[in-house]
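agent> Task received from the user: take the single chain below, predict its 3D structure, and emit structure tokens. No templates, no multimer pairing.
agent> Plan: (1) validate residues, (2) run structure prediction, (3) serialize to tokens, (4) report one or two observations.
agent> Step 1 OK, no nonstandard residues flagged.
tool_call: predict_structure(input=
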Amino acid sequence: MVENHNDKNETSREHSEEHIRTLLETIIKNLVTYPQDISVTFERGERTTILKVQCTQRVVGQIIGSQGKNIQSLRTLTLGMTSLLGFRSIIEIPYFDPKK
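)
tool_result: status=success, residues=100
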């Protein structure tokens, strides 16, 4: 059976997305005090993969970091990796209302 070029690219992208998701989850778990509060999933768009970080309110500040330096660094890192593979990535973190 001859494999279609697009099928090969899709398989490669799926493997890359899972690898990047695992790497991002590992990095974030090593940044925070409560690593058990972290999980990362992804949703695929046509040209963009959204990496969704699920966490509790007690660790979201550690993920963001001082003046947003941690999350910006993570976004730069993942965007660099995925752009070499031909697609974009976005890291999404939950919003917690500070007034609550």
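agent> Step 4: summary for the user.
Residues 5-31 form the longest helix (27 residues).
agent> Done.
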